[in-house]
């Protein structure tokens, strides 16, 4: 189940608000400029699937998003708990950073956690299968996949170079909760 926990950015111990209703999550995030939508993720894709398999399964959705929003590039992150480079992948996204373009992700399997730092608040968004999130350019944020990653996300870029981050140098991400492993990750060897 998707979830939004909102914190004061000086207090990581207790969220000020917890939302689990998708419409309420979308409303709260839209109020701070973040796109959050529920899409159909009905193709039989599992974490560990290849980029080619995922893109082929969601070709029509990808083409529509690229056409409607001017995206120039697409790729896929597909990880499961036994991936040999999972720790290095996790570390790459764990520190607060920004991008010069919107960060758009469509989760077609599993789950991942975006945490956004906006106007003195921290928005921890647990994204699950079917969630599409669009983080506006320049928004400080970080991403966690837990120590046992289990997800497939399609990434869309207006920059043909793909994922390019500018790290803020702030240590705020170290003070807020990390993602717990997804329930399905324990059944994967």
TrEMBL record:
Signal sequence, start to end: none
Keyword annotations of the record: Amino-acid biosynthesis, Dioxygenase, Iron, Metal-binding, Methionine biosynthesis, Nickel, Oxidoreductase
Cofactor annotation remark: Binds 1 nickel ion per monomer. Binds 1 Fe(2+) cation per monomer.
CDD domains documented for this protein: cupin_ARD
Oligomeric form and interacting partners: Monomer.
GO biological-process terms attached to the record: L-methionine salvage from methylthioadenosine; L-methionine salvage from S-adenosylmethionine
Gene3D superfamilies named among the record's database cross-references: Jelly Rolls
SUPFAM superfamilies (UniProt xref): RmlC-like cupins
Catalytic reactions of this protein: 1,2-dihydroxy-5-(methylsulfanyl)pent-1-en-3-one + O2 = 4-methylsulfanyl-2-oxobutanoate + formate + 2 H(+); 1,2-dihydroxy-5-(methylsulfanyl)pent-1-en-3-one + O2 = 3-(methylsulfanyl)propanoate + CO + formate + 2 H(+)
Protein name per the record: Acireductone dioxygenase
Site (May play a role in transmitting local conformational changes): 102
UniProt entry tagged with the keyword Ribosomal protein: no
EC number: 1.13.11.54, 1.13.11.53
Domain of life of the source: Bacteria
Pfam families per the UniProt record, alphabetical: ARD
Needed co-factor(s): Ni(2+); Fe(2+)
PANTHER family: ACIREDUCTONE DIOXYGENASE
Pathway note: Amino-acid biosynthesis; L-methionine biosynthesis via salvage pathway; L-methionine from S-methyl-5-thio-alpha-D-ribose 1-phosphate: step 5/6
Tagged with keyword Metal-binding: yes
């Amino acid at each position: 189940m998707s979830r939004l926990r909102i914190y004061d950015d000086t207090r990581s111990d207790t969220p000020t608000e917890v939302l689990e209703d998708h419409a309420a999550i979308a409303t709260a995030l839209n109020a701070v400029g973040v796109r959050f939508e529920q899409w159909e993720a009905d193709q039989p894709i599992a974490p560990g699937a290849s980029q080619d398999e995922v893109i082929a399964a969601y070709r029509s959705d990808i083409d529509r998003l690229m056409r409607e929003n001017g995206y120039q590039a697409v790729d896929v992150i597909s990880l499961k708990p036994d991936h040999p480079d999972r720790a290095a992948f996790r570390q790459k996204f764990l520190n607060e950073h920004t991008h010069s373009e919107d960060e758009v992700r469509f989760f077609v399997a599993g789950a991942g956690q975006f945490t956004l730092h906006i106007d003195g608040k921290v928005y921890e968004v647990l994204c699950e299968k079917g969630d599409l999130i669009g983080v506006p350019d320049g928004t400080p944020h970080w991403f966690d996949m837990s120590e046992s990653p289990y997800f497939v996300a399609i990434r869309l870029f207006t920059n043909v170079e793909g994922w390019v981050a500018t790290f803020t140098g702030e240590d705020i991400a170290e003070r807020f909760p990390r993602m717990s492993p997804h329930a399905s990750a324990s059944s994967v060897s």
